[in-house]
Structure formats: C-alpha cells, structure tokens
Design brief:
Blueprint (H helix, E strand, L loop, with lengths): L6 H6 L12 E3 L2 H9 L4 E3 L3 E4 L5 E2 L2 E2 L7 H5 L3 H7 L5 H19 L8 H10 L9 H24 L12
Antiparallel strand pairs: 1-3, 2-3, 4-5
Helix pairs in contact: 5-7
Bound molecules: iron/sulfur cluster (2 copies).
Amino acid sequence: MPEAIDESALCTACGLCCAGSIFDFGKLTDDEARDMAARGAPLWSGDGPGLAFPCPLLDGTCCTIYAERPGVCRRFRCGVLRRFDGGELEGEAAMAIIATGRQLDDAVRELLPPEQSVAEARRAWREDPEHWRSLAGPERIAAARLAMALTALNLHLDRHFRSDKKKLTGMA
Ligand code: SF4
Ligand code: SF4
C-alpha cells in the first residue's frame, strides 16, 4: 500500500519557496539574521532583516538545518499546503501541482546561465517584462523564450502557491 502523503512529503518533493522561485526573501529577526549570516546565507535588506532566496542551506529539495531553521521557514504555508490542510486538495493532486511547478522551474533554469538564479531572472523580468522586444536576432529569440518560460512559471505559482497580495501576473 502506498504511503499516505503528508505535508512533509509535499515539501520535500518541492523546495520551491527556499529555492527562490516564489519569493525574493523571508523576514528574519535580528538574532536570526546574525545566525543565518554566520551560516553563510545572504541577507536581504528591506524594512528589516531578511533571508535572501535562493537559500544556500537548501540541498536539493531539503533544508540542511531543518531543526534550527528560522521562524519564517517554520511558519510559511504556501497555497498548496493551505488547501491541502483545509481538505480542498487531495495529496495526489497537491503532488501533481508541485511536480508541474518543478517542471516549469526547470524549464526556466535551462534557459539561464549557471550563475543566474530563477529569483534574479524573475526580478529582471518584473522590472522590464518587454526587455526581449529591444533585442534582435538570436538574442531576441533567447530573451523571448525566457520571458515565456518565466510567465508560465509565475502563472502557475500565482494560481497555486502565492497568496492574493503576493501574486505577480494579475492573471491567476
Ligand atoms: S512552496 Fe509550499 S509545498 Fe513547496 S516547499 Fe514551500 S511550503 Fe512546501
Ligand atoms: S533555512 Fe532551510 S527552510 Fe529556511 S529557506 Fe533555507 S533551506 Fe529553506
């Protein structure tokens, strides 16, 4: 008999929040910021300290400091988890949404240079979604492909993972 799907199984199949595919940062307390900086994690400076994503403490889809992770990581519940908890989403359906999210995320990664993260590409796309139009030839084709892949990823993340106030596309 297959094992029942629980929240832990969903998150360890996913990791998209820690990888920076959904958000730019998670808020930290001052003590947490000191701890994460000591662990080599990049900090985000906004109206308080934050953990900048992608988090380097993610290994594959698993947190390497799970028992000591910051409060924001313990508290965060994406839309998939919230609907799963609320009984609106069966485990298999939640897994399928996560698998699609990872496929769309991989499709973006395949178009990026190794040194660029999905989070960085998303920020550039948000600042200038029509950037590809200013280019010509192969550069234009490559940039348009990336814009399409990012749009597909963000539509899926908006529809299933982000809360209403955090959606990026205005279409989900
Ligand atoms: S995005 Fe949701 S399902 Fe995926 S790892 Fe984060 S909390 Fe878990
Ligand atoms: S500390 Fe762990 S749970 Fe938090 S973002 Fe990094 S990898 Fe994810």
